[in-house]
Amino acid sequence: MSGYRQVREPDAARRRLLRGALGGASLGMARRLGLPLLFSQAALASAADERNSNRILVVFELSGGNDGLNTVVPYADDAYYRQRPQIGIRPDKVRKIDDHFGFSPGMAGFEKLYKAGRLAIVHGCGYENPSFSHFTSMAYWHTAAPNSGEEYGWVGRLADAMQPEPTPNYIVNVDATQSLAVRSRVHTPVVFDDPEKFTRNAFFDEKAVLDKIADADPGMNATRRYLLDVAHSARDASALVRRAWESYKSPVDYGIVPAHLPKVAALIAAGMPTRLYYVAYRNNAFDTHVQQSDLHQRLLTYVSDAVYGFTRDMERVGRADDVAMMIFSEFGRRVPENTSLGTDHGAANVMFLVGKPVKGGHYGEVPSLTKLDPGDNLLYTTDFRRVYATMMQGWLGFSRTQEVLRAQFEPFPVFA
Asked: What are the CA-CA distances from residue 342 to residues 66, 78, 119, 368 (Å)?
């Protein structure tokens, strides 16, 4: 982005040089041994596939429409304070990350991650003809199909494309009910809220019968075999989740509201073969129409502390190189403050990409605070599906993103 330096990990350039040297050595070795060049390239591709197979994506949803302008504060832009004379966060309160932007006062964790080069901010994320309905806009983000419809969620479709065969525990959704985002044609997501109570619901007299699941036999029809496989998978997954949670002990502080991220950390630490995790800060918490300032800052503090704690926990269990997180909300807030000292439903917003593998900094074009739409909303500059494509291709190594997103989007260079 013009005018901003992208912060990178201190060792990123060294790692890229090393990878290039190893790649060149492999090609050179092949030539010296008289092996076909195709063989050496195939070996490198196989190594890349093996590396990608260990990679995990965690999607973190902030429900309710987070106010991006009071999250990543453009404290150097006078237009921000003209639009928000009461709720605008003053420059002396902002956690400054450069000469234009800073984080909300309680976001110490995000500040540390950004300054360590492990947090990327993507500006102006949205879509054409934005909906201001929580339900409708969230459905668009869940399906990656704005102003249209999809039967399955984008995470579910991604799982189907990455792994076409039903695979137990491939998707985990930590929530009281399954999110549309993880709905899959092939896979059955593991959905739980309380790991200690993750068992099949039944009356006491029925439980023994329901827990006894028949084994499939060769003569069984495909439909019954599929249902039995799902039942076995659910039973086994519940046992795995309970065991992982029982054995999980961490000294890492996730803050006052851990936002369910320790549950994800427990499964990763236990070696759960999950590639895609989906969690949410629930109950429309970020719908801040009235007296926003104190509530919003508290919410952001909780999120910042929890995300920072999660990254430290990944370091502790030795998986920091394998895990990246994407954070989003279904829309931003209107630029002017309202008469109740809050903000109303808006359009474009910021998204965050977090983790050790991330090349931190600013990405995307910053929307203007003076050129707004007729409803006083930011004009989007980045289709949110471009960020999805970045996580699919840049992080997970899945290049056929058009199969999932129904259109082609160029990934941001967030990952080496």
From this structure: 12, 19, 27, 21
87, 337 Cβ separation under 8 angstroms: yes
Q: Hey, CA dihedral for 164, 167, 169, 175, is it positive or negative?
A: positive
Identify each DSSP E strand in 10-131 by its residue range: 56-62, 72-73, 95-96, 102-103, 119-126
Nearest to 245 by CA among 269, 266, 273: 266
**Helix 37-52 / helix 12-32 crossing angle, nearest 10 deg:** 150
What is the amino acid identity at position 336? P
The encoded tokens of residue 11 equal 């060792």
- The answer to whether the CB of 140 falls within 8 A of the CB of 153 is no
**Cα separation of 239 and 196, whole Å?**
10
- Condensed to tens digits (0 to 9), the pLDDT of residues 203-226 reads 556 555 555 555 656 667 666 555
- Domains belonging to the chain, first-starting first, are 57-405 (3.40.720)
Q: What is the pLDDT of residues 166-201, one digit of tens each?
A: 999 999 999 999 999 999 999 999 999 999 887 555
Give SS3 for 288: coil
Residue 119: CA count within 13 A, CB half-sphere: 22
Place 46 in a pLDDT band, splitting at 50, 70 and 90.
Answer: low
